[in-house]
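Example record for the data management plan.
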Amino acid sequence: MEERDRHDGKDSTLEHGLDGRAVAALLSGAVLKGKDPDAILRQALIDPRVYENPDAAIDGPALVRLVRQIQFSLDDVYLGFLAQGCRMALETERLLSFLSCATFGEALRVSIRFTDAMSTDVGPGITEEHGSGLQHICKYHTVPGVDRDILVWIRFVWIYHFFSWLIGRPLALREVSVRGPRPVQSNGFDRFALFGCPVNYEAPVDALSYDFSDLTVRLVHGSIKEYDDYYGSEPDWFATPGGEPSWRERTQQVLVDLQKAGLWSAPIEVVAARLRTRPRRLRHDLALEGESFQDIRTRLRGELASAYLLASDTPVTAIGFALGFSEPGSFSRHFFAWAGMAPSAYRAAHSGDAAMIAAATALLKERRIS
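Corresponding structural encoding:
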């Protein structure tokens, strides 16, 4: 009982982490199948008061416990989100099919073939990208009444952490693409930051993009016991394998802090100095993550502009001035380049989208922009 109380207090009072609304979304498949969410949360050593509470959150180890508890309570790898699902015994067989592989590339292809045969509601595939990447596309046909986007996210988290564990170091993801919008929590937690790479929201497909250099990396683990021990240790799924935040994350945080102070076009020299590195080195390290300094700075500014347009009645000209543009025409040109449409057209196109408006409101609150 003392252990449960320790977890309950810790999880329910976190300022950062997966909030209660996202926790409820993860449990939605189990609820549709008649399971009691409070009972599942207690069995996962999580305070049930987290459920649906936007001001409460769980950490990475608690997320591992929750996902495993949902899976075992339903005997379903996919948390009750699919009509057909997949029994846990089949998951063990799938693991055995590629734990004996020699390299990550071989394991990935074996895993995709096995997964494709397990359920008609899952349609994985791989395609070669231009350059040096391989795109792992995931298709999930979910039942009505569940949040498909949260399933995509949690499966990507599992894939990323599992294969990183399997090769003994973090995968060098080039990009994550998701069909859904950018999820925003009132506590400011970015649930996609753990991937340490650019994220393409509202994309045509849900996909992880791998670097070709990872495909030939040899596996360092090869047994179900090692796998069970890994999960028994309650790994932190919100931490990048290896523990260090990516250069993209660090650069983005510095730029956000500078934008809050009114410095909208901070030069790379200023950001590099705050990160205690050199501009040339920062450009190099960002490039290794498939990112660029200019793209990060432009994206952050564009996100704020779109949030202002949807979450306020502020005139377009005033928004441009608030974001540091000296002329209305300059703001309109920059926004068109970022969003593909004029600011007024963007506002008109999405003015009736309650989900986008809620996300925009939360983003302004997260960035502390009034």
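Summary line stored alongside the record: Residues 1-13 have pLDDT under 50 and may be disordered.
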